[in-house]
Amino acid sequence: MDLALAPLDVQRIRQDFPILSQTVRGRPLVFLDSGASAQKPRQVMDAMRACMETAYANVHRGAYHLSEVATENHEASREAARRFLNAARVEEIILTGGSTSAINLVAHSFGRGMLKPGQRVLVSEMEHHANLVPWQMLRDDGRGIGLGFIRITDAGELDLDSLHAELRKGDVGLVAVTHMSNVLGTVTPAGAIARMAHEHGARVLFDGSQAAVHRRVDVQALDADFYAFTGHKLYGPTGIGVLYAKHELLEAMPPFLGGGDMIETVTLERSTWAAPPARFEAGTPPIIEAAGMKAAIEYVEAIGMEAMEAHERSLVDHAMRVLPEVEGLTLVGSAQDRGGVFSFSLDAAHPHDLSTFVDRRGICIRAGRHCAEPLHERLGLESGSARASFGLYTTHGEIDALAEALREARRFFA
Amino acid sequence: MSDLLELYPPEIRDHARKPRNRRRLECVDATARGDNPLCGDRVEVFLRLEDGRIAEASFLGRGCDVSQASASMLTGAVGGLGSKAALDLSEKVREMARIGTVPDGERFEVLRSLAGAAKFPSRVKCATLAWVTLEAALRGGQEASSE
């Protein structure tokens, strides 16, 4: 079967997402902000409801049947995440509150526990604040760990020469970069980045918040040391995410948060740590959310990542045709390898005015700096940009509706 | 379309297109810079005072039509006011932008066009950025934020 041509029945898929049948001021809802947070299919809601209605108790604690069932289900969510990322071992999957908490976990446990004074962390100019601020905090807490920056090209691609030049300085302990930009849509060459980092003795972390939704991720093939993604952008609930980390690293890393579930023995004076993954999961975990994330993973697996990728390519191709035809519109970034995230500006209107205008036509787009202020400064977009981001339920017609609304906006604000 | 015209009435669009007093004053007695960190909107307000009253006001800035029009209107509305009266006016404008009710007073004949923001909760801070910046300038602060 030719995977590139795998069909995706978008109209049928849309029926799984109750919210999409809404109308806004008499017009159909056109949701083009999935990059911020995706809508949820009924399957995810049903799984969360079933968890509460039939199998809810605290996990890893009770010796009674219901707790055992809940624990089994919870661990099945971990296994689903392992399968989704093709991790070698299920112990390499830490369930977190999301990508932000996953990256903060690494900054704390690996950054403060394993990086040495004088070593640096490298991030790129196009990071989401979630993969920038934790490293600034690490730099500023007096341990002598530095922070360096990988430049991007004017096209919005990672400048591999800049990465190489930084790595050659010989002091890089970790390269922490996005796998797909939430502003530019740029997909970074993760395999090559990991190879380059490893050749210079550095570890590598990928912020997969966007990429994991759009591409099949294989952490073993990428040879990633850390990989973070979040449930709510993958059509799952908020409050749950995943940190993948190589087992050898997790074994050597000290805990992040202290509390129940992450200990081996506790006396009043001291405690010893449980083995991974429990060591990094203090407190009662997001049990219901984990059930929802498992359902979300199963949902996209049933559709097939290849089919989703093919659909997204057709959306990207369509947007690349339709959006530049809008007079006065400038796309931000022109990466060769890109996913379904388009940021743009319009000559006649500020992004916020634009967003308000198209909202009146039922179209949801993001306006602002999309939690990536340094990138907007780098690109000379002090006023931010407007952003349309696609999901597996996005149609060509919705992109056309956006283009038409942008034309109207241009007339209105001219 | 009709409700869009509440956020963008002719006065707002006029001030956005032809901002008044958009320059730095030569003599500045009080100034502050206001930022909306989420969207990047920025307004700097400059005031020249005479006998404790605002003799001249100007602004510089970048941002959406609402934030810049609001700043432009501000420079025309605060002339002649003492510090306390200007702070009172500013509070009334911010309240108006939040709840949509226009207070009495001749200064609101123009400023009333900012009341439409109340129907657009995410845009209220665009309308109020210049005013929180004015308040910071009058209170001797350097910076303000609409968040």
UniProtKB/TrEMBL annotation, chain A:
Alphabetical list of Gene3D superfamilies matching this protein: Aspartate Aminotransferase, domain 1, Type I PLP-dependent aspartate aminotransferase-like (Major domain)
Top-tier EC class: transferase
GO molecular function annotations of the record: cysteine desulfurase activity
Pfam families documented for this protein: Aminotran_5
UniProt cofactor(s): pyridoxal 5'-phosphate
Signal peptide: none
Keyword Transferase appears in the UniProt entry: yes
Residue ranges the record marks as coiled coil: none
Enzyme Commission code: 2.8.1.7
InterPro entries in the cross-refs: Aminotrans_V_dom, Cys_dSase_SufS, PyrdxlP-dep_Trfase, PyrdxlP-dep_Trfase_major, PyrdxlP-dep_Trfase_small
Keywords: Pyridoxal phosphate, Transferase
Catalysis: reaction(s): (sulfur carrier)-H + L-cysteine = (sulfur carrier)-SH + L-alanine
Domain Aminotransferase class V: 30-402
Family: Belongs to the class-V pyridoxal-phosphate-dependent aminotransferase family. Csd subfamily.
Record-linked PANTHER family: CYSTEINE DESULFURASE, CYSTEINE DESULFURASE 1, CHLOROPLASTIC
Name used for this protein in its record: cysteine desulfurase
Gene source species: Sabulicella glaciei
Higher taxonomy: Bacteria, Pseudomonadati, Pseudomonadota, Alphaproteobacteria, Acetobacterales
From TrEMBL, chain B:
InterPro entries associated with the record: NIF_FeS_clus_asmbl_NifU_N (IPR002871)
Ranges of residues in domain NIF system FeS cluster assembly NifU N-terminal: 8-104
One Pfam short name: NifU_N
CDD domains in the cross-refs: IscU_like
Entry-linked Gene3D superfamilies: 3.90.1010.10
Protein name, entry field: SUF system NifU family Fe-S cluster assembly protein
